Amino acid sequence: MEKPIEGISPDAMRLLESYDWPGNVRELENTMERSVALETGNLISVAVLPEKVSRQGMQPGQMSPAAPNSSHSPSQIPEGGFDLVNHMQQTERAYLVAALEACGGVGTRAAELLRMSYRSFRHYSKKYNIP
Known about the structure:
Shape: globular
Helix content: 40-55%
Low-confidence stretches: 59-73
Strand content: under 5%
């Protein structure tokens, strides 16, 4: 589509990874094409994902503990609590994967995109088992 999409936001990536995908690869492909078409920024956001993906398993008005929106303040933490360490790890992993995808799998370019040293990039890739 020749749009300057650089990747997928961590929140959107978390939702995409946790969705069941009953239509398998075709459904994922259609969802991504739709998201690229609707996205106005440079990252695919939760806002452009289909409602069935973005609202999976949530009650009306409920914020998903697994995927809080980064614009939420700490005063909006769900009643049941929030696993901050897990959230940070998922966010780190999502950025590493998105950067690798954006750079065609070239680690040195992905590290540059994330403004980190290649050594740090390798460390985190190993930590999160990213090939």
